[in-house]
Backbone:
């Protein structure tokens, strides 16, 4: 659900064609690598011994990554002006 927002944010932050192409290339590289690494770690992590054994440990990994992502987003992403000229589309 966040992929369309990420692509739209890239289009908003990088107005030049060359900059946008480079940003989308980096985005594609990271997304492709993450999908491969995620499958690999998803098979290994549940079998690792630790304080939380089994598949439940996977959920503990998301917490620090989510907190770090939220902090970095708040610091690095510029504020965009709100456009409230449209009404909510209930039928859509």
Residues:
């Amino acid at each position: 659900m966040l992929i369309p927002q990420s692509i739209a944010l890239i289009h908003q932050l990088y107005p030049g064609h060359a900059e946008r192409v480079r940003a989308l290339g980096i985005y594609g590289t990271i997304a492709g690598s993450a999908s491969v690494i995620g499958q690999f770690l998803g098979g290994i992590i549940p079998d690792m011994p630790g304080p939380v054994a089994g598949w439940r440990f996977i959920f503990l990994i998301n917490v620090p990554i989510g907190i770090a992502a939220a902090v970095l987003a708040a610091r690095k992403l510029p504020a965009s002006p709100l456009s409230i000229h449209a009404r909510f589309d209930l039928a859509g």
User: Anything to note?
Assistant: The longest helix spans residues 17-44.
